[in-house]
Amino acid sequence: MGRIVVALMLREMATTYGKSAGGYIWAVLEPVLGIALLSLIFSLSVHRPGLGTNFPLFYATGFLPFVMYNDLSGKVASSIRFSRPFMAYPSVTFLDALAARAILNALTHCAIITLVMTGIYMIFELPVDVRIGAVVESLIMVTALGLGIGTLNCYLITAFPIWERAWSILTRPLFLISGLFFTYDMLPAAGQAILWYNPLIHCVGMMRHGFYPTYEAEYVSMGYVLGLSLVLAFFGLLLLFRKYRDLMEG
């Protein structure tokens, strides 16, 4: 299984990011440009970000986990469609396809986050006071959530192609309600009671807890995010194991 997963990862690296470094350069530049645009827009309308005084750092700690989740869940969801030609071989299963896309994209985004955050600290000469443990916990939460939702959507999108479009429409508000532009503590009590159930706001809160030494983020529940991710992954895998042959024939 290890050799198959590595082979699928190498194939995706060649097809998604190209055979040169250019593809990976763009993978880094895309979030950098997004953070720069957000920082410029909000710096013109507000005097200070939600935490600290540095706009790029504040928006990077929200934008990067969100992009990682969004890309990871989308890539995992399309695993069967992406690797279908290779599944004609008995030794290649949907588990290999899921694992290959999850591992490659998780590692890619972890590297991107490391590069972008290091660049922000160097360019703006910010004092380095980072809780590495909290940052790692946030990355674990994002990866688990992306894998759980992606696994369930892998079945739904393959079985019902219209679900991909419907899911895209249903989740568009996540960009606005996942704490990218604000902190959970800035919300009124009624808003906190509702948005607490958005797992992404926990992932973003934990990331900011890691980069802001005075931000405690007591509302964050790693158990809630991991538990939800596990339940979604379980039902996704259950459906795939039961319906895998029908999906491939269809």
Automatic annotation (TrEMBL):
Its main location: membrane. It comes from the Bacteria. It is a multi-pass membrane protein. Keywords: Capsule biogenesis/degradation, Cell membrane, Membrane, Polysaccharide transport, Sugar transport, Transmembrane, Transmembrane helix, Transport. InterPro entries: ABC2_TM, ABC2_TM_bact-type, ABC_2_transport. Residues 22-243 form the ABC transmembrane type-2 domain. It comes from Paracoccus cavernae. This is Transport permease protein. Pfam families: ABC2_membrane (PF01061). The chain crosses the membrane at residues 21-45, 57-77, 98-124, 139-162, 174-199, 219-241. Belongs to the ABC-2 integral membrane protein family. It is found in: Cell inner membrane; Cell membrane. The keyword Nucleotidyltransferase does not apply.
